[in-house]
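Why does this matter for the project? Reviewers at the last site visit asked to see concrete outputs rather than summary tables. In response, this paragraph embeds two records directly. Each consists of the residue sequence and, immediately after it, the corresponding structure tokens. Nothing has been edited or filtered.
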Amino acid sequence: MQKRGMRPDRFTFVPVLNACAGLRALEEGRRAHQLIMQTGCEADVFVGSGLVDMYAKCGHMEDALRVFNKMPSRDVVTWSALILGHVNLVDMYGKCGSMQDAWRVFNKMPSQDVATWNAMIFGHLKCGQGQKALELFQRMQQEGVCPDRVTLVGVLNACASVVALEEGRGAHEQIIQRGWDLDAFVGSSLVDMYAKCGSMEDAWRVFCKMPSQDVVTWTAMILGYVRCRQGEKALELYERMQQEDAFVGSSLVDMYAKCGSMEDAWSVFNKMPSRDAVTWTAMILGHVNCGQGQKALDLFHQMQEEGSNVFVRNSLVHMYAKCGSMEDACRVFNTMHSHDVVSWNALLGGFAMHGQGKEALVHFERMCEEDAFVGSSLVDMYAKCGSMEEASRVFNKLPSRDVVCWTAMIFGHVKSGEGHKALDLFHKMQEEGVRPDAVTFVGVLNACASIMALEEGRRAHQLLMQTGCEADVFVGSSLVDMYAKCGSMEDAWRVFCKMPSQDVVTWTAMILGYVRCGQGEKALELYKRMQQEDAFVGSSLVDMYAKCGSMEDAWSVFNKMPSRDAVTWTAMILGHVNCGQGQKALDLFHQMQEEDAFVGSSLVDMYAKCGSMEEASRVFNKLSSRAVVCWTAMIFGHVKYGEGHKALDLFNQMQEEGVQPDAVTFVGVLNACASIMALEEGRRAHERIIQSRCESDVFVRSSLVDMYAKCGSMEDACRVFNTMPSHDVVSWNALLGGFAMHGQGKEALVHFERMCEEGVHPDDITFVCLLSACSHSGFVDEGLRFYALMTTVYRIPAKLEHYTCMVDLLGRAGHLQEAENIIQGMPCKPNAAIWMALLGACRIHGNVEMGERMAKRVLELEPKNAAGFVLLSNLYAATGNLELSENVERQRKERHAKKQPGRTWIEVNDAVHTFVVDDKIHPEMIKIRAELKRLSVLMHNAGYVPNTKSVLHDVEEEEKVIHLCHHSEKLAIAFGLMSTDPGTPLCIVKNLRVCEDCHTSTKFISKIVRRKIIVRDANRFHHFENGVCSCRDYW
């Protein structure tokens, strides 16, 4: 490329650097770096990240740091490359025993994660410095780094190496606290530590608790007893090990052989009840490695004589075939006494690989002839496909044919309408001495029925009685069917009565037999008896008649059934639909809803989950009885549909009707309270939960934490969380999400550390909460660190939600270009939401040029996204471009992109009041406006200046101020102030992001009236108190 005079750009350098990193080509990377500096691309964030990654992977961290420090801005990829490079270097030096170099890199790192500490601990272990490893573990804990399983395994190994029993017991306590004592890897290390420290009682206690033991654990116990001079126990355990685990025996043989201790290997080998190819191979290789070639050959011949040569010869066939030597492959194959499917596959695969199609086909035919199972399978396949010529060709070539093969041919002829051929084949089968089984007789009886061969059927009946197959339900049904179709109802009835149980097929065969013989009365009598004895049979008959379009017969059966299940109702409805009787189907459907509570509940649940609450309510109201499942489905449906108030009304109605809620119901109720910030309703639900003894349910507790957090009371959320006996990742996520919503970034970080200390593994949702917390608190560096931690340490792949949080984090902080770089570098396609996040950041920081590009991206994906128009319009208005702002509004209206109206809710005296901008409906509106007017005067006196920049109306400034005064959140606050006692905190919910003027106004109001005002908008919580907001004006 360079020789042709083409000038590389930043898009060229990135893949070149990636190639150098992958190949560890340091010199090539340095030459590329020089060229990058000449072209002026070094400042580019992608090129810079590529350079850091290349130097880090090549082990030159000084160069990586030099590039990193020169970069004007760093993205998350750069941080990840640098951190991972340091970790890999520490690990490499530790494994090579160069601890001085490892410490040099370790001390230069800006922060050390658990992987880095692990590398140092294992490095000291490898160098025989167990005491230093333990000291390092203590320092790690003092610095607040939470150990993982790998750390504690290293600590146990260190304790074993220096016989530090008490330190080992301390590590064991931590393992139990974190729930890792049942882990096989950790368990083996515990057994080894106690055994090497001489505490065989503790070792045995751990050993017995382990769900399964591997060869390492058994060996650790045996050697422990040997060291403690308890030879008898060691021998006893060794014998028990051999009895319980053949794999352990093979592993011991392999271990002794690799260590050159062939006497011990032979001792184990000779005691094994059976040996596989792996065990033989381990012994042979052991003798080879010890220079005992003749012994190895003798053992190989012995292995062949004992029958293990099948595995070896299969491997030889496979090896020769892959190497292209098909002659040798065939030679080995032909010397084998028998061939299994592996042998055939190896040979056929070799022919196919080398383009010898004809040879493959010839040997395939030979395989079919030699292998009865393969041949039978082919016959069965051809017969089921109706290719009876092909089936007969394979069948006739088989040297031996088992009963399965004969039966497949018989069924094939019956299916093809060749009953006579099927019977001829049955006679031939008997002549060749093959004994028919129950399945064969079913095929033969079907053949007799198909050609009405009554005498042949009777002979088959006599034969099957001799073989003891008459009791088989399928044979019995086939006999009844054969006699009925042949017109011999007396024989059919005799067989029917002798059967221990009858299924729907048998009943139907008898009834239809009587119908065919013109014995209608007997058919009807049997039919009535069938209904009394078997409800399932009734359902099957309804279904059969309905599918045949005989709805009169279907109704006749349906009306006589004592009870009907959902299957029966559905069969009737579909029958009417298929007959074009839609109205009858609907009438039956409504009747079914009224009669069948289970069906009704299922319908309610289905409609609710689909968001069709009108249909769900219609079915719900028609039900004669409603179980808790039905009420719960309705509650969840209203919550999902954004109707939290209706969900709570329904919950109150449910209790009035005496229906006892269960844990799932309470989860739905708590979600409803959270959705509308109904704190008092939530507290009452909490009391009800305690009374119902559902508080121990982990989902209920997590929902309580979530409800209190979303209702603005983090104190209650923390109180519930701290009383939980144990925490899973769901409860931690609920708490961290609460801190994120409230902008309490520091609390989120502290509790994440506590989560790690408890040994709970974070998931992708955990990191969404953490990144969101960092975004709302302006913790850019911490957010970048968490992203790197997620992707490099926990190996959790980033999803669209994580990228959106990162864009929001950087965008709010003013790093707009870095935020755009993240979107451009995403492996997945950006959606409108992520472009909207950056557009919102452009509005905050007044970047018109980028904002226009972001708005274009949003509207390309969602042409009717009103929020995109509004944000761009507000951006223009905030920067003084009122004409452009009006143009955007006009375009929005032309595209019929409807703005979501702003709404605010407030709960006062157990009632929820809703307000919209310029509200005129509320009965107290005159008093509310008067209260607002009073507050406005006080605010102006305190220095409040209305922010009218975002008001787009082409009107006088005074009218703009009036418009701002009637925003829904201000109306709600005024109503709350006049409806509650002085000093009572106010809690309101806004469905959109709170505007700048309302944010400023609420600060002034909180100071004037000396009240705490909590506002939850679409993004987060704002806690206003004494003129200050908890967000510190960063939102």
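We now turn to the second protein, recorded in exactly the same manner.
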Amino acid sequence: MNKIPFLKKKKVEERSRKIKANDSDANAAKEYAGNEISTSKYNLITFLPKNLFEQFRRLANAYFLFLLCLQLIPQISSLAPVTTILPLVFVLALTAIKDASDDIARHRSDSQVNNRETKTVVGNELVTRKWKDIKVGDIVRLENNEFVTADIVLVSTSELNGLCFIETAELDGETNLKVRQALEETCDLEDHIDQLSRFDAEIEYEAPNNNLGRFEGNLSWKNKTLPLKNDNVLLRGTRLRNTQWAFGIVCYAGPDTKLMKNSGKATFKRTKIDHLLNRIILGIFFFLLVMCAIMTICCGFWESFVGYDFRIYLPWETYISNDQHIGALEKSLLVFLSYIIILNTVVPISLYVSVEFIRLLQSKWIDWDSKMYYEPNNVPAQARTTTLNEELGQIEYIFSDKTGTLTQNIMTFNKCSIKGKVYGYVTDEAGNEVQDPEKLKPIQFDEKDDDFEWYDHKLIDAIKKGDKDVHTFFTLLSLCHTVMPEEKDGKIAYQAQSPDENALVSAARTFGFVFVNRTQSSISVRLQEKDATYDLLNILDFDNDRKRMSVIVKKDGKIILFCKGADSKIKERLDSSEKDIMTETDEHLNKFATDGLRTLCLAYRELNEGEYNKWAEKLNKANTSMEKREEKVNETYEEIEKNLKLIGATAIEDKLQDGVPQCIERLARAGIKIWVLTGDKVETAYNIGLSCRLLTNDMEIYIIEEENEHSVEKKLEEIRKQMIEKVEQLFDVKIEDRKKRLDWKDWGIDVMKFDQHRKAEEPNGKAQRPNGHATTTNDSGAHDREQFEGFGLLITGQALAFALSDKLKMKLLELGTMCKAVVCCRVTPLQKAQVVELVMQNEKKITLAIGDGANDVSMIQKAHIGVGISGQEGRQAVLASDYSFGQFRYLERLLLVHGRWSYLRISKFLRYFFYKNFAFTLCHFWFGFFSGFSAQTLYDPFFVATYNVFFSSLPVLALGVFDQDVSADHSMSKPPLYTPGQNNEFFNKKIFAESVIHGILTSCIIFFVPYLSVSNSTRPGGMTQADLQSFGFMVATIMIIVVNLENALETWYWTGLYHFVLWGTIVVHFLFHFVLYSTIIYQIFNTNYGYVGVAQAVLSTGNFWFTLFLTCTILLLPVFCREFFRMRFMPTKTDRARLNQKFRTEEKAAFVAHIQQKLRQSKRSIRSGYAFSQQQGWGPLITSGRMQSKSATRNRQQQQPQSQNQNNNISKSIFLKNRKTHMMSESSSPKNSVIPDNQQQHHHHHQSPAELIRLTPLTSS
């Protein structure tokens, strides 16, 4: 019953939950949601009514249903109902089949997920169950690399101290590992099934919600109440990594999980043109009613004053009153309904059949495009819907994920600077940098990562010569990190919490400086084939404020501090003697940043024993302080991290997907604004923004990372004020009303051509950039003036949460729409959808969302167009999308070629279709004035039935499927050609009105010119030419020739197929009517057909041919002259592009302008390329021994099995005793000492190394 929506039991809103482990009956009584999920729109019961309801929301379908009802009344209908039933059923069935196909794919995906298997504790054994059968309160066992079944509270894991590692790619797009930890009190349960089956803890926690960064609850067990936090929970969608097994209690299942709470519902999407067509159909219907009303009124008067006296020749129906006025009124009312049927061809059902057919073929062009096929992964482009193609040509906002969408999730060591010498650039004999990839040969190494390539032999030579600085550089990289080694198939594999760290440590290994192993107090390395072990004294952990990490190690009595971090932070801490080397390194850093690389500076300092001991004692006091612990620890770190010696800098490439920078650059030139919504932090996202040319150094970039609503509001106002000042400074604009919404269009400024609107001269002197990022020196002269490429905005997820409130969201939108690019960092899946919705609802612009993971599904479903990339994060995004392909760069071709062509074609199709049908239908209207307003048809009924099917359909279908203004290559090389679609220039209400007027005028000429030519003419035999059949055939023939030649004038792309269709249609018209009007039909069917012999009689007269020539000249010559005049004196962007494609007139000028732009020297200082995705908390985990490398743990267990057993009880008592100390310390502070994934919070707990070591029950030899 719950499957049927209207029979679902009303759900009571939850405030909190309370469950008991291993008590399925009590938990089931509370009727919590099961673990089965559904992302589909329909089921067997709801498909037909729900789908028909959605289809009849399209007014045209409702309009044709109404016509069908009228045609079922024989008294008023002159057309058989089957002429409407068949096309209507065809359109409805075609759409229903497509929708069913899409939904079946969703059902299959749901079934695949729901039928995954996992193990649960039932009684005293492990039982394998399907995911859909898992209930809240069940204890489940997860295996390594297994997806988490539901949201679960950790009970125990295979790792020491209940730690486990997870990958959250499907939640936030990040592939770096995060740490979660079970409660200390439940760790001892381990994997003992008998103990787990008796585990009877009660858990009280918050109701289901969509906050990924928060979990609040309490676990009550053995008369103890233990607090539960986010670090104790594994969320559905995450994946267990580097952990053999983990047990947990299901707290949220199925639709209640945080992943599903962040996922949007699949919606029925319709295009902007569909919405416009709905309004147009409504307008046409009113126009039809007006025409019918005119005919009704005229019929009433005619029947009353004329027809009443001629009833002997034109008798009234028996059900009509014999009273003159009442009978005329009844007759006119019936005529009203008859004219609705006759004149309904202003919007024939064939319109929607043709539109669906055109969209289907346009979708196939996308499917069949070999240039959008990604061969490495065998992924072709796929149009998963056929109804949204033209909307691809009208996109104004793109919302993109970063990780896996713009980037490859691969970090590689690319360049470095060591003591003023730069490595990584290959030069030729003349000293010029070699940039041609074909001339570069990678160096072969004995051991390296698959993606690592190195070309510069200078660094290899320096290592071989024993360069001391190079040796120190790589020694630092092999020691200063929190990477954990693990042996796999006899080789060392690194498990890093940050992909940056993995890249640096792997690069050091490649060059012969191998990190081998670590314990809580030592690091083992192999430096140029020589083994060495360093005592690990301290890890000075990374955090967002420090932007650096340090390690203090000791070897051979020498104590050294190694430090790596942001260049701005390292500079402040350098010894005064390092200025010169820092200046040289600065130049290298600027070059690295210009190349879009992520940079870190490396430095070191030698410490004497007394100095270190004094500092260590101070750090211990800070770690045990009960007040302002965090501040005191950071101050202590500051004291030791000073007077550093600079070693150099690293440059890591966060590998973009191929062609991403060029793609984004062209999309920006097409007037499309790109917003990146990512789970990464600000520095990472900013650096990628520079790499992919989304952000440039000539942009005015603002950052919002405030942490409360008042500060965010204040920052938004500050940025708005700075924007106003900048606009007034650079442009001839004086903003009088500063409260009015800011908009470039209000000032007449084209955002694609800022330089054209700049002030002629700017004052000399220095101008400080409002956001303080850089200083600009303005010299006199246009070439030296400050460069400006628009505004950019970066905002963190925490600030975004406040900015999306009802109070501030319009302010955020105002600033966002003023920017060329917006980057939202640390955002949740739900926030992504909220940002998309904000723009959709208030800007009324067409939006596109693109992503590759489950965390992108909500925004993909929310946007007008959703695009999924078949990437490394599963197929959830693809299944939720409207279009999919293998690489981000194909988006450029999808929009600039297929989207633009689709919009162009459907626009030309619609305006021509309305033109030809108004021209056809209005002839009935004019004929009414000459037929006593009797609803008599002008044309042969066969012609009425076949006009839109055979005689005018194929040329317009060829126009809608094949036409193109310029080639695909030209479309991509000239992105500004995309802007007409954004401005609705090819089809709008004005163009529709012009098409209607054109059709009405055409119908007048086609009707009245033949009428005047035959009204007083006779055939050679003396018979009149003014009979209905001859006149109707003449008008029909002229109609076919004129509208098809008009179609030819509309077409830009003439092919052999189009020639065949165009001339074939005209020829078929003549052949069809020769056969239809011949005596053969009369002899076969033995019926008196009034049109027999009409074709031969009409076509044999010179009057017809003269009338045809005269009508075509009157109608087509003005159109030809108008087009010639427009193209000659008022050319559009398309006209210029077509001319340039033919004569290539602009290429030289464009090339010169491009070179000048590239050679232009920016006057802004290059910003730091620092970006490091490390997270705080891993240092204490390592030094405390909570997190051990697999090899270290294994070696220790092999060396000391007996010692471990003997000292187990002693160790355990020490462990429990010191746990109390630890818990007391923790309770005195709101910070948690074991929070490695704490970017959402800014509260951290630090303990001294001595204390942390004491807390761990590990024995030493």
